[in-house]
């Protein structure tokens, strides 16, 4: 691949352009807002000048509702040898292209499973896709050359290719991406009118649950509008669980029904344990049972570097890390996740170097 045209210079389009440009591909940038394309170009993602001829690859990175029309225009104008889109839904755009009578042998629907709460070219990064799944949805009509170019794109972005059926992909992202966004937003919405004293009690749990609620509502409205059926199906199941859980909570106050209600609540919690255990862990492997070493850490420059350096001197690899900030305090708790056999050595080493450990 020597040349690429990226149509849509938001977070995903600009990130792909940055990755390609960094690896020697000449990237042309196009956007309905020329200022956004200029911003992406200024960041080193390519040039906002029109290509002189056909590009090896055209990447369409526009909202789902505009994917089919944008692709149809590009295919009709013969702007590339291969055409990909990176929208978060796959079945709908392909059916729209079929209805428009487009030749789909040169097209492949894709979806990089990466993103951020922020959007736009200023939020983009060349390493956004590194190590992340990138779904490819080829059909029997897909030309082999197009599939090869798509695989080259994924490799240049250092992502991991995953081949799926388009409709199976849409059902999957409804479960693991679209529904979590809605649930996060609904929980966060409870905080909007909450008493200030309640908000001040927010800890790491509520921060974890509501992190993605900071995402752009307009972008998510576009995504949800393109995949409403599968998301509604997942929410139907969730609604049934919520109804049963509310009924069980009410019954805890009723004599004679408390035992059955507690069993129902325990069932939901245990099913949650079982589902969480299926979420892939480090490097995509089965989730590991790490030991957590919790340390009090001050909010001063260099403290994180110092604790990681002390762990390194002890010969302990930190598998994962979380920080819980103390409200109104210049300190917090850092949770260092390590292999169980390394926990004792890390604990002893950190104590020896003066760190205050917590249970």
TrEMBL record:
UniProt key word Oxidoreductase: yes
Family: Belongs to the prephenate/arogenate dehydrogenase family.
Record domain Prephenate/arogenate dehydrogenase: where: 2-287
Known EC number: 1.3.1.12
Record-linked Pfam families: PDH_C (PF20463), PDH_N (PF02153)
Protein name per its UniProtKB record: Prephenate dehydrogenase
Domain ACT: 292-359
Domain of life of the organism encoding this protein: Bacteria
Pathway note: Amino-acid biosynthesis; L-tyrosine biosynthesis; (4-hydroxyphenyl)pyruvate from prephenate (NAD(+) route): step 1/1
Leader sequence segment: 1-21
Classification via SUPFAM superfamilies: 6-phosphogluconate dehydrogenase C-terminal domain-like, ACT-like, NAD(P)-binding Rossmann-fold domains
Enzyme class: oxidoreductase
Entry GO MF terms: NAD+ binding; prephenate dehydrogenase (NAD+) activity; prephenate dehydrogenase (NADP+) activity
Reaction equation(s) it catalyzes: prephenate + NAD(+) = 3-(4-hydroxyphenyl)pyruvate + CO2 + NADH
Sorted UniProt keywords: Amino-acid biosynthesis, Aromatic amino acid biosynthesis, NAD, Oxidoreductase, Signal, Tyrosine biosynthesis
Gene Ontology biological process terms in this record: tyrosine biosynthetic process
